[in-house]
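Summary for the funding panel

The consortium committed to producing paired sequence-structure records for every protein in the target list. Below we show the first two records in order, beginning with the earlier of the two.
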Amino acid sequence: MRASLIQLAVADDEPAAERRARAAALVRAQQGADLVVLPELWALGGFATDTWSAGAEPLDGPTSDAMSAAAAAAGVWLHAGSIVERDPDGPIYNTSLVFSPSGELVHTYRKIHRFGFDSGEAVAMGAGQEIVTAATDFGTLGLATCYDLRFPELFRALLDAGAELLVVPAAWPARRRDHWSLLARARAVEEQAYVLACNTAGTHAGVEQAGYSVVVDPWGRVLAEAGAGEEVLTVEFDPAEVARTRQEFPVHRDRLLGIPAPVQRTP
């Protein structure tokens, strides 16, 4: 299969409508790919918190409309990164959108782990509650977003739900780029799955983005890696390598579930 990760540059002075049109054109240009991936919160900016409330949109809003048309025009599965979703009955969410090659919105994922500790996303957005996988023609996608990458228990749950390709859109900052690359490889090795991690380039609200989108195979080998600027990272690989790896080195068979609590011994 062929996957294209669009490492989109985000700048504060580019209107969201113009960026949507530019992103849609980049998606349409990926005809021949099986899967196309965009980064996290690319329409508004992952650190542009002051724009989120006003720029939040429903699942059938302008970003969804543009990405649906682009997926259908290119004939690709499209993980359109994430939007700031406005739920009429609740808070705003960091929500990923997955479209089929016909342009149908078939899966959404609300980010579970919100970054910021006591500020930013952690207080401005609601937390997702569901593990989400997406069945495709080339394997089952496991959906996660940016900060989720630091929580291996989520990826183990995606493994148990059948995930073979872990797709991680992000707005990961340059100052922690080493963690980005390390964690992407770690999740691939742990789950014996492909990791397709698509980051932003540029600067959001003064925060420089890391770039360095990466595709990692089930053995933890980097198949392709982007640089720091905007680019489209395209790689071809065999999804069947997941099953071969798990059969050749069956570590998941030796998992110990429900490890008992430590025994308290008296002297």
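The next record, for a separate protein in the list, is shown here:
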Amino acid sequence: MTYTESDIVPTVERLAGQDVAALTQEQLDGIDQFHAGGPQAVDRLLPGLRLGRGMTALDVGSGLGGPARQIARTTGCDVVGVDITASYVAAAVELTRGAGLADRVTFLHTPLTGLPRADFDAALTMHVQMNVRDKRAFYAGIAARLRPGGRLAVFEVCRTGSTPPPLPLPWSLDGTDSFLPTAGELRRSIQAAGFDLVEWSDDTAWTTAWFADLGRRLATAPPPVSLPALLTDGPTRMLNYAIALTSGTLTVHRGTFTAPGTP
């Protein structure tokens, strides 16, 4: 299993030398966004989600909760995050409490199938489906939890051919839990789950540039704590991911879809 990190918040506080509630938003952005692109990637998804006050979004595979909190802060909506890694959910809850957003952002330790609601206005997945074998069933489960016409935004990693990327990777240590589709396969799986396509964009060049800028910033002024420092073999995993993007082995695609039915 890849996601085995524990005691995440105590580790952050030890490395940062202060309570998580005292961390700046810039410091948190380097910790709680478990995907390439950081908060800027979330910003790229927001227009397609069309969220606002009085609405509720579903973050599937919510990790440490950075995107969910960012969406709530930016749009004023409520957010529910679900994740199957208990230690990540516990950290997300504590980070959200420290950010003063516990009244609007909720995290549940449950698979998507354990979520009974079917009234979400929008949903998102960011670097999640690589660990999911049956992608059509996964996205059909999301469609079943959206109101008619609800929006789905994805920011996901795909393969370009049969050449495997170097291991370990942020989502897989040994490859046994990595199920990478091509971009076309992923798009067709989402549409086969009942979604209608609104937008599909290759964000590989943008993501590669983000990695290059991140590398320069870390080399110039490394922060006391960053996401790679929290992960098992984190620096190697992040470097391998960046190399695979640069070499063309992997791509990152961003998409917006609408759920079946009339709003």
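Regarding this second record: Strands lie at 56-60, 78-83, 105-109, 120-126, 146-159, 196-202, 250-258. The chain has one domain: 8-258.
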